[in-house]
Amino acid sequence: LAGGIILGVALWLRHDSQTTNILYLQLGDKQAPNTFYVGIYILIAVGAVMMFVGFLGCYGAIQESQCLLGTFFTCLVILFACEVAAGIWGFVNKDQIAKDVKQFYDQAFQQALMAESETNNGRAVVKTFHETLDCCGPDNAIAAVTPLWREDLCPKKDSILKNILESSSCHKKIDELFSGKLYLIGIAAIVVAVIMIFEMILSMVLCCGIRNSSVY
C-alpha cells in the first residue's frame, strides 16, 4: 500500500501540468533543465519496487519462509540505501534546480526582447512561462514595468494598472513551484524511510521467530 501511494504521488508530480509545460520547453537547441525529474524517477522506481517487495514479504510471512523473509529484508536494505542517497542528492541540489530553470528563463527573456528573437522561439518560451506561472519579468523591478512596454509577452489583465499591480516576478514563482514540489518529495521520502525501518525490524523479528519455532 505504501509503495502504491508513493508511486501515485510520484506519477502525479511527473505529469503535473505546470512542471511539464516548463521542463519540456526548448530554446533553439537548448533543452530546459530537467534535473528535477531525476528525483521523480527515483520515487517512481522505489514505489514500484516497494509494491513488489511488499508482496514478497507478505507471501514469505504467510508461508513462514525464512528465505523469502531474508530476501525481503535484503531488498529493503538496498531500497533504504538508495533512498538515503537520493535524499542527500536532493538536499544538495534543491537550490540548483530552481537556479538552472531561472537561468533558462532569463536567456529566453533576453532573446524575446532582442531583434534576433524573431529567428528563434524565445518569445514562445517566455509566454509559456508567463501563462503557466501567471508572472511577468525576471525580477520585481522588471516585472513591474514589463507590462507597459512588452504587453504581448505578459498575461493579459483587465487594465494596465491591474497589470502593474498584479504582475509577479517569474523568479519568485519558479522558486515557489519547485520548493513546493521538492517539499512533497521530501515528505514522501521520509514517510517511506520510516515505513522501511519498521518493515526491516518486523521482518527480522518474524524471521527469528520462525527459526526458533522450527527448532522445537
Automatic annotation (TrEMBL):
Q: Of which family is this protein a member?
A: Belongs to the tetraspanin (TM4SF) family.
User: What's the main place this protein lives?
Assistant: membrane
Q: Which domain of life is it from?
A: Eukaryota
- GO BP field: adaptive immune response; regulation of cell population proliferation
Its record classes its membrane topology as: Multi-pass membrane protein
**Lineage summary:** Eukaryota, Metazoa, Chordata, Craniata, Vertebrata
Per the UniProt entry, the disulfide pairs are C135-C170, C136-C154
Question: Molecular function (GO) terms listed?
Answer: lipid binding
Protein name per its UniProtKB record: Tetraspanin
Matching InterPro entries, A to Z? Tetraspanin/Peripherin, Tetraspanin_animals, Tetraspanin_CS, Tetraspanin_EC2_sf
Q: Which gene produces this protein?
A: Cd81
- UniProt keywords, alphabetically: Adaptive immunity, Cell membrane, Disulfide bond, Immunity, Lipid-binding, Membrane, Transmembrane, Transmembrane helix
Q: Which CDD domains match?
A: CD81_like_LEL (cd03151)
- Positions of transmembrane segments: 36-62, 68-92, 182-206
Coiled coil: which residue ranges?
none
Of the GO CC terms on this record, one is: basolateral plasma membrane
Pfam families noted in UniProt: Tetraspanin (PF00335)
Q: Where in the cell is it found?
A: Basolateral cell membrane; Membrane
Q: Which PANTHER family match?
A: CD81 ANTIGEN, TETRASPANIN
Quick check: keyword Disulfide bond in the entry?
Answer: yes
Name the source organism: Thinocorus orbignyianus
